[in-house]
Specification:
alpha+beta, eight-stranded antiparallel β-barrel, 30% helix
């Protein structure tokens, strides 16, 4: 199956448990609307992807697996995605070996040898999604490396409109704007600490 690419534009804000619960209530999100997904992260032993502000993961959502390489892009992040079978995913977890030509060539373009990729571990997320305004509102409760956190994301196609809506939402609910690192960065920083 071939890979596809898209630009990801999203806004993020870390939340306290109380703020997370407030947002679930505010948007009338029921228990049955929550679903679980797992992100499995990869990098080289010396974190070459991280040094390139990039990330490589396999996401498991229900019975679907998707390999994603995220790279910096002037508008947000360039995502290269490829659907995988369960067997292909388990082989990658076991070996770290990425058998996708497009993703391998993107790694080589960053001076990263695809053979040097290692499996680092997983992050489990309980997620709720709601179409709001011109974007997708995402509430995440994540568990990784004996840690858990809460996060609000807003995924949009128009950066300016999305930024205005996101700022208004936080202000209206009295949630402070917090500089927020993405999940893979939080995962790696925790991994560093535990080394």
């Amino acid at each position: 199956m071939c890979s596809n690419q898209n630009i990801e534009i999203e806004f993020k804000n870390m939340l306290t448990k109380e703020e997370y619960d407030l947002l679930l209530t505010h948007f009338h999100i029921q228990e049955g609307e929550l679903f679980e997904q797992e992100n499995h992260y990869f990098d080289t032993g010396d974190f070459a992807l991280k040094a390139n502000h990039s990330a490589l993961r396999i996401r498991k959502k229900k019975e679907d697996y998707e390999l994603t390489l995220k790279q910096p892009h002037p508008d947000g992040l360039l995502e290269t995605n490829k659907a995988l079978s369960k067997e292909e995913s388990e082989t990658i977890f076991a070996t770290g070996k990425i058998n996708d030509e497009q993703i391998s060539s993107l790694l080589i373009n960053m001076n990263i040898d695809p053979a040097s990729i290692l499996y680092f571990g997983s992050l489990r997320t309980i997620r709720a999604e709601k179409q709001i305004g011109n974007g997708l509102l995402v509430l995440d409760h994540s568990f990784y490396l004996k840690k858990e956190d809460y996060e609000l994301e807003y995924e949009v196609s128009n950066r300016e409109e999305g930024e205005i809506y996101f700022a208004k939402l936080l202000t209206s609910l009295k949630i402070p704007i917090r500089k927020t690192k993405n999940k893979v960065r939080r995962f790696y920083e925790e991994k560093y600490k535990q080394k």
